[in-house]
Design a protein that fits this description.
Layout (H helix, E strand, L loop, with lengths): L5 E5 L10 H8 L3 E4 L5 H4 L7 E4 L10 H14 L4 E5 L9 H10 L4 E4 L4 H9 L12 E5 L13 H6 L3 E5 L5 H10 L7 E6 L7 E6 L3 H8 L5 E5 L6 H4 L11 E4 L3 H13 L3 E4 L3 E4 L5 H7 L7 E4 L2 H13 L11 E4 L2 H8 L14 H12 L3 E7 L5 H7 L3 E12 L6 H7 L5 E4 L2 H10 L2 H8 L4 E4 L2 H9 L6 E2 L5 H13 L2
Parallel strand pairs: 1-4, 1-5, 2-3, 2-4, 6-7, 11-12, 11-18, 14-15, 14-16, 16-17, 18-19, 19-20
Antiparallel strand pairs: 7-10, 8-9, 8-10, 13-17
Helix pairs in contact: 12-13, 14-15, 17-19
């Protein structure tokens, strides 16, 4: 059996966590990704950095014209010998044209695999708190499209049978014809009082749900300002939403939060915020790179046995240090007689991943406290301080008063903010509610990149800054901007706690 050249992968209904493990496996080996416009950017980040990403939105001006372009691309890229992932919202075979694309691949002699996904009916039902089936309410589910092929001479939907269907009805792509669909169901016998719900952006942090009797649903949807894409659920099971609605009850549900950390550090924080219901955006302000010159680092590493203490001030520093240690042919034995100090729990955890236990973690996670607790222990000794190429001189200066300190830059920070991104636009338009700022360097880079509208949005409080520490807050304020919330524990979890306090205080 040939190895597949094309993978038709279901990306799920919107939430980045609802793609399958198999889908991620296929995506991780992709050389070309042809994706629907509604696929989460966080899912796309799982593709290799050098993969070619093609959004189907960019292939033609009109939706109805895109299929031939998509089909041609699939075949062309596969025949070039590329591993192609066709990444589809929901499930490829549920109103996703996956069957049509698979037929064409078969006719072209191209091997393929179909990877199922969580379809919109399942995602919308779960996140709206509406079971599709329930022993007391519904023993079946009917899934129909509200947007049939316009070339059909007549509708393939048997409205009489559908109106009499005793279970749950799910309508895809019917938002634009909602009034027509409701009228057809009622005309063919569906009780006007039947409960129904429209779920916009199902499974996402900006999900919105309108519940009403079927006859009132179009009016209620208009009044609420709902827009496509939306999934319609009809049936007695909708009554359970009052008890089972968990998704929209989360403490940060619908709140827009911007994370400005480097991309490789942002995922855990974003995942935690999304678990609490936030709509998260990533806008890295600095990029982590290797130093331009490794020679000072290599010289220090070759003399590790001469240092009494090794001090780390960030997780990036830990990872860069040990990566370079391996690269020059050394291992943990080089640190046999060296004690290790770290600035906080995240840095400590990074050290533990290399099977080492820090000897000192200050009670408060900032340079002032690390210096204060270290000074007595390092007096008269040799200290190696591994850190970024730019940062506060306080730790070096204070330790150097009592010890012999060598400072090495094991990584470089380079300002790198995408001012053309949607996240940047939302900040400058005052539509981003909160911005997480995790260091003074990030604060300087972020505010330095904002246009006048963005600066005004922060100064007036439409966009609120959440700071990781008093030092970072002081930098933000020196730059002329207010801080809405500050972490009591100087960690990302502390920032989340501060955000929760801020939201709950309103």
């Amino acid at each position: 059996m040939k190895e597949p050249r094309v993978y038709l992968v279901g990306a799920g209904p919107g939430h980045p966590g609802y793609i399958t493990l198999r889908g991620l496996e296929c995506l991780s080996r992709a050389e070309v990704v042809i994706y629907d416009r509604l696929v989460s950017p966080q899912i796309l980040q799982q593709a290799p950095a050098d993969a070619e990403l093609i959004c189907v939105r960019d292939l033609a001006d009109l939706h109805v014209e895109r299929s031939p372009h998509i089909n041609r691309l699939l075949i062309e890229k596969a025949k070039e010998g590329k591993c192609v992932v066709r990444l589809k919202g929901g499930d490829p075979l549920v109103f996703g044209r996956g069957g049509e694309e698979a037929e064409l691949l078969h006719e072209a002699g191209i091997s393929f695999e179909i990877v199922p996904g969580v379809t919109a009916a399942l995602g919308a039902a779960a996140c709206a708190g509406i079971p599709l089936t329930h022993r007391a309410y519904a023993s079946g589910v009917a899934i129909v499209t509200g947007h049939e092929d316009p070339k059909k001479q007549e509708s393939a939907i048997d409205w009489t049978a559908l109106a009499k269907f005793p279970g749950t009805i799910v309508i895809y792509m019917g938002f634009g014809r909602l009034e027509t669909i409701v009228d057809a169901l009622i005309e063919h016998g569906k009780a006007p009082q039947t409960l129904a719900a429209a779920i916009q952006w199902a499974t996402r942090g900006d999900q919105r749900t309108v519940q009403a009797q079927l006859k009132h649903l179009p009016e209620q949807v208009r009044n609420a300002g709902l827009q496509a894409p939306a999934t319609i659920l009809i049936g007695p099971v909708v009554s359970l939403r009052d008890k089972l609605s968990w998704f929209e009850a989360r403490p940060l549900f619908g709140r827009r939060v911007l994370v400005t950390r480097p991309r490789h550090q942002a995922s855990d924080l974003i995942r935690r915020l999304e678990e609490l219901g936030a709509v998260c955006w990533s806008l890295p302000v600095v990029e982590i790179r290797e130093p331009l010159d490794w020679s000072p680092v290599d010289e220090a590493l070759s003399q590790l046995q001469e240092f009494d203490w090794l001090v780390f001030t960030s997780r990036n520093g830990v990872e860069a240090f040990f990566s370079r240690l391996r690269k020059i042919g050394l291992d943990l034995r080089a640190l046999a007689s060296t004690r290790i100090a770290v600035i906080g729990p995240a840095t400590a955890e990074a050290v533990r991943r290399f099977y080492l236990e820090p000897d000192l973690i200050p009670a408060e996670f900032r340079s002032e406290n690390l210096s204060q607790e270290l000074r007595e222990q390092v007096a008269g000794k040799r200290v190696l301080l591994a850190r970024a190429d730019r940062g506060r001189p306080l730790l070096f200066d204070q330790l150097a008063e009592v010890a012999s300190v060598t400072q090495i830059a094991v990584y470089a920070q380079v300002d790198d903010i995408d001012i053309h991104s949607e996240a940047y636009r939302l900040v400058c338009a005052g539509e981003m509610e909160f911005v997480f700022v995790t260091s003074s360097n990030i604060a300087r880079g972020f505010f330095g990149a904002l246009d006048e509208a963005g600066k005004q949005a922060v100064q007036t409080g439409r966009v609120k800054i959440v700071s990781i520490s008093p030092v970072t807050s002081a930098t933000v304020q020196e730059l002329g901007f207010p801080v809405a919330a500050e972490a009591k524990e100087f960690t990302t979890e502390g920032m989340i706690a501060a955000l929760l306090d801020l939201v709950n205080a309103k």
